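Hi U.,

Before I forget, here's the chain from the pilot set. I'm dumping it here mostly so it's searchable later in email.
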Amino acid sequence: MCSGNGTNFENIVRTCNKHEVVLMIHNKKECGAIKRANKLGIPHCRISAKDEDQMILLFQAWRVDLIVLAGYMRVLSNDFIKAFPDKIINVHPSLLPKYKGMHAIEQALDSGDTKTGCTVHYVNEELDGGKIIDQSVVMICPDDDVKTLTHRVQQAEHRLLPLVINSL
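Structure:
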């Protein structure tokens, strides 16, 4: 499931060999993940975040065994989460439990932390509160800004997320 540029999505398709990517759902009309799905030959569709029942039916019809939130910028309902127990994972740009929710990289910079990173975790009813599967540390350099640190955290996500997916 994607909302943005789709770099994690493309990376998953190209590097994960244990699971076949059968479907990509996006919630924004204009997101980069659409072009990537077309280029990679992955079926995709846009479904409003309000239409979770439709998403549930679609994932069930495709018999998915794992749902990966790869930059999906919406909170899922409890009903959606209960429909796929222990089958939904998320990648988050912080070392959870620090900096849940939005603007995690900015929060790490503003706090004066010397390190941040990314976390892959199971999705549960608590925002970014599910069981942590794995993490990758990224050191914060003195001259980092949001753009440079975001880039390095995304590189860490691109390494970590496929490792986790292939281990499940």
